[in-house]
TrEMBL record:
Official protein name in the record: PEP-CTERM sorting domain-containing protein
InterPro entries reported for this sequence: Ice-binding_C
Pfam families named among the record's database cross-references: PEP-CTERM (PF07589)
Domain of life: Bacteria
Residue ranges constituting the Ice-binding protein C-terminal domain according to the UniProt record: 218-240
Organism: Natronomicrosphaera hydrolytica
């Protein structure tokens, strides 16, 4: 009787162990092919904060917040108007923008047992009202070095007209510092512009609503190892029972 029971259980145990490996592989494979981790829909803000959406189930993301007394958020996210020399001086250089806290930011946190491998951060940009030969630049920084240095910068220039100029920017996050993240990281986007050289009318620079963080969220190696070890343990125990 004992032999009959073990003969019945053993194939099932093999099946369960195999399923355990398959589930681990499935989880890893599905997460690894994810592209967008976080996206946003921040058009026409009515406050200085707006929700961002965590596309991946294993992360949480804060609201996007605009900072600085020339960062008005009643129109669109991270909207800055330059109509006086005083305003222009606040964001003439990256040092000026940092000193005046002219930035937008959001924080992303990965769940326990998972890790983020980032690839890029993409944003929309807009320059309007007199943006002919002028430009503005967005400088990306992070909490990993307490916002001390630029990760990268992207610039949108005028097109020779006085109309609205739309564009986009992308920041490369493939550096080792942004791989295997298991905690929280905050990204800040500082704005710098030379549009203050024209003060004959209000001019605007904006980080547009499409702020998208790309990468993968995968189980930590230790988590996968424990799951696989559990499956091996079940299989090995059933083998011992069968030969007893």
């Amino acid at each position: 009787m004992k032999l009959q029971v073990t003969q019945r259980l053993f194939p099932r145990a093999i099946t369960l162990a195999g399923l355990g490996f398959a589930v681990v592989g499935s989880v890893f494979g599905t997460a690894a092919h994810a592209d967008v981790i976080v996206s946003s829909d921040l058009t026409y803000l009515t406050t200085s904060r707006a929700e961002m959406t965590a596309v991946d189930d294993n992360v949480t993301v804060s609201e996007y917040t605009a900072h600085g007394n020339t960062a008005f958020s009643t129109s669109r996210t991270h909207f800055i108007r330059v109509d006086t020399a005083g305003n222009a001086a606040r964001l003439a250089t990256i040092s000026d923008s940092v000193d005046n806290d002219l930035y937008g930011e959001f924080e992303i946190t990965v769940d326990s047992g998972w890790q983020m491998n980032l690839s890029s951060l993409d944003i929309g940009m807009q320059l309007s009202r007199g943006a002919d030969t002028e430009s503005f630049t967005v400088h990306l920084r992070s909490s990993l070095d307490n916002f001390a240095e630029d990760i990268a910068a992207t610039t949108l220039g005028g097109d020779g007209s006085v109309n609205v100029v739309n564009g986009s920017g992308s920041f490369d996050l493939s550096d080792a510092a942004f791989q295997a993240l298991t905690d929280s990281v905050t990204f800040r986007m500082y704005m710098v512009t030379d549009i203050g050289s024209r003060t004959d009318g209000s001019q605007y620079v904006r980080i547009m609503p499409d702020v998208v963080l790309n990468g993968t969220v995968v189980p930590e190696p230790g988590t996968l190892g424990l799951a696989a070890l559990g499956s091996v343990f079940v299989l090995g125990r059933c083998r011992r029972v069968r030969t007893a």
